[in-house]
Write a structure and sequence with these properties.
With 225 residues, the protein is mainly alpha-helical. The protein has eleven helices and no strands. Helix 5 packs antiparallel against helix 6, helix 8 packs antiparallel against helix 9 and helix 9 packs antiparallel against helix 10. The longest helix has 25 residues.
Amino acid sequence: MVKRLTKLRYYFITVLSVLVAAFIFKFCFSKTEGFLLFNQYHPAWLDFFFKYATNFGDGLISILAAIILLSLRKKKKAMTVTLAYIYSGLLIQVAKRIFHMPRPKFFFEQTLFQYSHFVDGVRMHDQNSFPSGHTASAFALATVFVLVFKKKKISFLCLFMAITIGYSRIYLAQHFLIDVIVGAIAGMGCALLSYHQVYDLKLFRSAKVARRYKKLKIASQANAI
């Protein structure tokens, strides 16, 4: 795992740098101030773009990716995607119900603040803002793809998509910055855990492969003696 992370350091260093910068920004401004700074520019074309781009953070995208990988006989990759999606989904849902934080629209209504940049056609929610499930799903899938494909071009595309989806949640007034930050961390953590289980610990090998591996291990030990 450490060797793989070292080879892919450009992805993880970039993500960590963005997250650190976001944390610093978060502590420099209040919840409302930070939200407004991220939402100063609201042209119609960006409304249209983020309205649809945010859907790539939906869990159905991870399920579709797993199905495609499975159809291509990439079983380990499909398993890693599936586990990352399951782990991140469970973690986010538990956290949402523990913290039960208000979404921006409800938060502003409670504080009597007038915010007008809601995008038409986007269904607004009131509760369970922390953390962002779309962001977690996006970063989980992006990080798994980076780990299993090991392609620099794929890594930058995955990073761009994950950050875009995370920002879309703030742009569409569905989440605050801290929700997105924690969602990204949760998604990456679940992706790393899934990769470690499938590729390093090999916990999800088929019985046939496990028996073959055991025989090879016994044979190699016998030859060594």
